[in-house]
Amino acid sequence: MSFEWTLFGLRLLATALLVTFLGAALFIIWKDLQRAAEPPAPAAMPHLRVLAAADDPSLAVGDLLPLQPVTKLGRDPQNTVVLHDAAASAEHACVRRHNGRWRLEDLGSRNGTLLNDLPLTKPATLAGGDVIGIGGLRFQFQTESSKPHDS
């Protein structure tokens, strides 16, 4: 009889361990699902801040243009950021994330692209605060660490 009670106790212990394990697994899955359902922070991605809009009615000084992993700028409506500036080419420039860094490239535009008021002759890595010039438009590349802080 003692053997039967020992076996019964071991079965109860195994059942309790199994239920505890399953409960912990379900709790972890539930927490992960909750975390995945939360929207990402809106300012997590770098963006371009419009510094000068020239005669472009679609842009205003201070506008924030979020960057995608590949962001094309130009007059063509297929671009990520459509520019309404006569000096901008159809496909003027591209800002892309490459190996964890953001790079600016002129796409063979006829009037060129400026980076910090210097002509861009080859793709360049962007740093927070850099100013991109296309025609009469000026954009500042901003990251979380380069944003001006409110006082």
Question: Please, could you describe this protein's structure?
Answer:
The protein has 151 residues and is of the alpha+beta class. The protein has one helix and eleven strands. It has one helix at residues 2-37; strands at residues 47-52, 64-66, 70-74, 81-82, 93-98, 101-106, 114-115, 118-119, 124-125, 131-134, 137-142. The strands form two sheets. A six-stranded antiparallel sheet has the order 2-1-11-10-7-8, with no helix packed on it. Strands 4-3-5-6-9 form a five-stranded mixed sheet, with no helix packed on it. The longest helix has 36 residues, at 2-37. The protein starts with a helix and ends in a 9-residue tail after the last strand.
Task: Set out the fold topology.
Elements: H1 2-37, E1 47-52, E2 64-66, E3 70-74, E4 81-82, E5 93-98, E6 101-106, E7 114-115, E8 118-119, E9 124-125, E10 131-134, E11 137-142
